[in-house]
Amino acid sequence: MLTRSGRFVLSRCSSTVGTGHTTTAPTEDQIQMLLQLCVDRHYISPGQRNTQHFLRGFGCSYGPLGMELKRNLLDQWWHSVTRSRWQVFGINTLNCGEEGAAHGLRMVDSGLLQKVLEQPELSREQLVHEACRLLQKSPSVRKSLLQGALEQFVPSMELVKRKLPFGLAETGLCFQPSDGSGCSAEVTQTSLVWFCSPRTSSQWLDHWTRHRLKWWRKFALNPSGFSSSEVPQEELEESALRGVKIFYNFPWGPESLETLWSRGDTELLDAHRGAHSKLQCRDGRKSVPHVVSVSGNVDRGVKAFLSNSLQQLKRDDGKQKLQQRKALKLHPVLAPVKVALDIGRGATVELRQVCEGLLQEFLEAKISTWPGYLETLPTSVEQLIAKYDEMGVLFTVVISENTLESGLLQVRSRDTTIKETMHVSEIKNFLSRYISAADNL
Amino acid sequence: MLTRSGRFVLSRCSSTVGTGHTTTAPTEDQIQMLLQLCVDRHYISPGQRNTQHFLRGFGCSYGPLGMELKRNLLDQWWHSVTRSRWQVFGINTLNCGEEGAAHGLRMVDSGLLQKVLEQPELSREQLVHEACRLLQKSPSVRKSLLQGALEQFVPSMELVKRKLPFGLAETGLCFQPSDGSGCSAEVTQTSLVWFCSPRTSSQWLDHWTRHRLKWWRKFALNPSGFSSSEVPQEELEESALRGVKIFYNFPWGPESLETLWSRGDTELLDAHRGAHSKLQCRDGRKSVPHVVSVSGNVDRGVKAFLSNSLQQLKRDDGKQKLQQRKALKLHPVLAPVKVALDIGRGATVELRQVCEGLLQEFLEAKISTWPGYLETLPTSVEQLIAKYDEMGVLFTVVISENTLESGLLQVRSRDTTIKETMHVSEIKNFLSRYISAADNL
User: Fold this and answer.
1) Using CB atoms, which residue from A139, A155, A184 is nearest to B63?
2) Cys staple from A61: which of A45, A432, B43, B178, with CB 3.0 to 4.6 Å?
3) Does B422 touch chain A (CB under 8 A)?
4) ipTM of the complex model
C-alpha cells in the first residue's frame, strides 16, 4: 500500500544551491544558509572561527554527522583507488620527517625554545646560534603525502618484483603554513602516487583524471558541478610535465578538489639522492620510473558534496500556501544517517520496545540509525521529517499503535517523499538492499 | 576430499613469542625475529630509525600489510565503541588549537622565526621579544584527543537533549614531545570521552574497563597476554579520581595499551571557563557531569597483536627432520590479506586467466587478496605457503591444470594447515562466510 505525503517540487527559480547556475539570491545568503544548516544539523561545530575553516576548505571541527560523512568519503576514496587495480598498495607514513624544506613548518618544543630565549648569560650571538640549532633539530611537518610515498618506493618495488606500473595510496593529515590571515591550516589529504614508465606517464595522467572525475560525479546530485581542466603551461609546478585539476563549481565560484601532476623523475631521484641503479624497474628497457601524483583535499570534498546536495524545495500543498523547505540529498553511501526511528501516537512504553529491538537489529546490520524515539519533546511527524531532510536521513521509520496490532510500520523516503507501509520483519532487509544497491551502482 | 599437508606442531619449549612465559631464548632474539618478520613481510618499512619507532610503540612508517592491519584495528575499535550504545557519537576535531599548554609542542613557521633571528638591526632584547611573540602566536599541537572532546561537550548536549550519559568518540594523530632521546613521537590514538552523572562515574569506569579488555582479548591468539590493573592512588593524574590501565605482556615486559580515567568535572569546567549553568545536564538532579576517558594507542596495539599472533612452529614431518617455521596467526578480521591466489603446474596463460577472474570476484566481494600468481619467479608451493604464513594470509588458493579440467582448486588454511579441494564456483562464498562468521563471534 502506498500513500503520498504532500509533494515537494524543486523550485524553478533561484533557490537551488550547488548547481553553479547564476542566481538572483545573493551568494552571501547561500553561504549563510549552507553554514546554518551544517551547524544546526551537526555537520560542523559552531563558532565563527570553525565555520571559516570549513568555508576555506581546511579541516575543521566536525560534529557527528560531518564526521561520518567525511569518514564515508574517505572509505569510498580508499576502496575506489585500492580496488581499481591490484597494483595499488596502501601505506601509512610519518607526519614528521627529519629533513624537510628549510623554511617549512616545524614542530618545536616551545618550553625548550623559551628556555633558550630566557637564558640571561647568553650573548646575542650565542642566543641566535642556540635558537637556530634547536629549530633545525625540530622535526619538520609534511605539507603533502608525496614525499612519504617517494621514500617508500624502494621497499615497495619488491612487492611487484620491480615491475611497472604500480602505485602507493595513503590518506592522512597534512599542514599548510599560515597565509597572511594568521590561520594555519590542517587538511586531510588523499594521495595516490603512481610509478610508471616514462613513455606512458601522459596516458596514465589521462587515465587517472577520468577515474577521479567519474568518482566525484558518481556521488553528486548535480554531476555537472564537477569538472576537470588542464593546468596551463605557465602555471605548471617546477619539474612537472603536465597537470590537471578537478574543480567543483560552488555558488561562489570554482575551487579545486584534487590535483594530478605528471612529475617526471626529478623528485624521485632527489628523494633517493640520485641513486639511479637502485630505482630502475623492469619495463622492456631499464628505466627510472616517472611519477604521476593524484592528491585530493577531503575537507573541501565534504564541503562540495554538502553544497552540491543541498536542495531548497518549495512545498506545493494544494492550498496555495508556499512553504520553503531544505533537503540534503547526499548520495546513499555518503549519507551519515541511513534511517531515523520514531514513534507516532500510542502506548509509549510498548512502542519504544519495538524501536529498541529494531535499533539493535539495524546496528548489527551496520545500518547507521538515528534513535529519534528517544527525544522526549513531542514533535509532529511533519516537523520530524523536515528535520531529517535537513540532516540528509534517507528513510524515516514510524512505529505506531498500528505496528503493535498488525506489525505494519511506515517508511518515508527522503528522495521520493513517498510513505510506504511495510511489515516490521521486512524493514532491515529493505534498508540493507537499498544501501548495497546504491553502493554497487 | 581432504588431504593433509605435513603437520606443524606448536613447539613446547621456549620458542613461542608473545605468551609472556619465561623463555630460554634471550629477549633480544625474540625482538629481532619479530622485527625481521615485520620488515620482510611488509608490515613496517625498513630502517633502524623506523623500527625503533615501532618498538617504542610510536607511529612508524608502515608497509602495505601493516597499514591494512592498523586500518582493520581502527575499524574494529570504531564499530565496537560507537555501536555498543546509541549514545556514543563520533567527532573529528582539529589537531592544532589556539590555546594550549605554555610549554607544549607548537607548529612554528621556521622561515618566519629564522627571519626574526637573522635581523641584524634588532637588539638582544627586541629579538627575544619578537621570537617569543612569534612562538605564542604559533598554534599548539594536541597531545591527546581529550581537550577536543571536552570542547565539543556543549554542542553535543543538544543531540541527547541534555540527558546523561553520552559519549564522544574520535581517532586521530597526536604528538608527544621528545623525550631525552631527541625522538619526538606521533601516535594514532583512540578516544572515548564519556559524560555521566557524578554518582555513576566509578561504575562506568568499571563498565568500560570490562568492555575494552574483552575487546582486546577477542582478537588475541593468547588472550591471557592482555590484562587490566587499577592505577595505584599515588600514581593518579592530577584531578583524577580513579584510573585503570590495560596492558599487553610483551616478551620483554608489560606495556600499557589503553588508559581509563575517572576524571571528575575539573577539566570539563576548565574547558568551558567554569560556566556551571551551561554544563548542567538532566539526571534526576541538575549536575555538571563527570568525565570518564578511555584512550588507547593504536600503534602499540598493532605491535601487541603482531607479537601476540607470532607463532614459531617446529615441523614434524615424520622423517626425524625438524624445521622451524613461523606463522602470524592474526585474527581473521585483523589479517591484512585474507587470501593468496597462486598457480601450480600447467598452461600458464589459461591458469592466469582463471586467477584474474577470481581476483576480480574477490575484490568485488571486498575480500583482500594477494595476487601471488603474478610473481614471475618460480617457487615451490611449500615455499609459498611458508611465506604466506609469515604474512598472516588466511587461505592460499592454488589453481592448477586440474582446475581447467574439473573446476576443482586447492584451498589451504593457515590455521588448520589442511588442504581442501573445492569447486571454483564455491570459493568466494566460502571465504565471505568464513570472514563474516569470524567477525560476528
Assistant:
1) A155
2) A45
3) no
4) 0.90
